[in-house]
Amino acid sequence: METGLQKKYGLLTAIAMVVGIVIGSGVFFKAEKILTATGGNLPQGILAWAIGGIIMIICAYVFAIMATRYEKVNGIVDYAEVTLGSKYGYFVGWFLVTIYYPAITSVLAWVSARYTCVLLGWDITGGEAMAISGFYLVAIYALNALSPRLAGKFQVSTTMIKIIPLILMAIVGTIAGLNNGILISNFTSGVIAEVSSNPLFTAVVATSFAYEGWIIATSINAELRDAKKNLPLALTFGTMFVALIYILYYTGLAGAVENSVLMENGEAGAKLAFSTLFSNMGGTVLFVFVVISCLGTLNGLMMGCARGLYSLAARDLGPAPQVFKGIEKSTNMPVNSSIIGLLLCGMWLLYFFGANLVPVSWFGPFSFDSSELPIVTLYAMYIPIFIIMMSKEQHLSFFKRYLMPFLAICACIFMVIAACYAHGMAVIFYLIIFAVIMALGLILNYRRDVTTAKSYNT
């Protein structure tokens, strides 16, 4: 067993991780929800995409500033540790390991299976989708555990592939919509269906899933060549590109078919739009690219998920650090950490199915959307990091030390408020589950500390 991760990734892989993790299922999956949440109000939907993109870019820029100063094992955990100490670093790391990574990764496995089922004409909530979800989870895990270099190359290649349908829809859809009048009609039609009491908040929170993932790119900073230079570049330019392509894609989608048709067709709406513009055959081929893009996102998330416990064990934190800090020599991967990552993904996939896909929830009031609330929780965790950064980083300019962190704090607070309005009472029950899991993590770490102290005294 080795005890250190090698520098095996370059700037291209880092940018591909940012773009590749963020672009994928979310832009297709949440476009439907945003359109429905706004009642088909296209300008309000574009505004939601813009607000979500600005929040992502601001937060990514502030972390890019921190990335020029700190480099250890896992970016966000590093930043939490250097600003608020090892206990807060462990708190954030445990949340990533047990809730954030596996919850989001499990949803991505289902979304990848969902669009596979749409392509094949199968039920998206039945046994077919869940069987494919499980297969995708295990297959992507095997790719990362057995050949991390191949996983990195897969990330780069799928990033290139997934951009193709987005750019084509953005360009062709917008031109076609302007020529046939559909785009102008969708822009001016206003609300065409019933909406919730806070449609903009609901739509912005939905964008959080589509935009999320950029922070996971920081999980490979210990494996990134010249990380203090390359990681900030990847975060800044990657997120700006993503926000632009999302808004253009959403506009192009509105030029392909009427909003009412997209809303009626639900999960098949994107396939219908591609088929309308590029014929049935061309639409099917491009929709295969959509499935591949989802798998690329799943791969990027699994890259972070597999390294979750390792990032804690490398600091001698969490349960059994000696077990989870080991690196397999032949693959240079933290194998034990990745195994637990897969197990937690399976558990969260089971929860997502029982809470969101069955006719009657298995978990009663303790059912929530695990594709959104964990992301908003992470935004809340950023707030104290940004506050301490403003206090400690005295060498930085006013713009970097005060203005951008302040804007990032405002953006995070906005996301928390929007989530409370969008999800209502589900937030309370989610926080109960969150508190139980976090308390378990603190107990496990405390017991290990006590055991270590007794052994040392003996």
Please tell me about this protein's structure.
The chain is an all-alpha fold. The chain has one domain (11-457): Amino acid/polyamine transporter I (Up-down Bundle), CATH 1.20.1740.10. Helix content is 78%, strand content 0%. It has helices at 11-22, 25-37, 42-67, 75-84, 86-120, 127-146, 148-180, 182-188, 199-211, 227-256, 259-265, 269-306, 308-313, 321-324, 335-357, 373-392, 398-423, 426-457. α6 packs antiparallel against α15. The longest helix is centred in the middle third of the chain and has 38 residues, at 269-306. It starts with 10 loop residues before the first helix and ends with a helix.
Furnish the topology, listing elements before pairings.
Elements: H1 11-22, H2 25-37, H3 42-67, H4 75-84, H5 86-120, H6 127-146, H7 148-180, H8 182-188, H9 199-211, H10 227-256, H11 259-265, H12 269-306, H13 308-313, H14 321-324, H15 335-357, H16 373-392, H17 398-423, H18 426-457
Helix pairs in contact: 1-7, 1-10, 1-12, 2-9, 2-12, 3-9, 3-10, 3-17, 4-5, 4-16, 5-6, 5-12, 5-15, 5-16, 5-18, 6-7, 6-12, 6-15, 7-10, 7-12, 8-10, 9-17, 11-12, 16-17
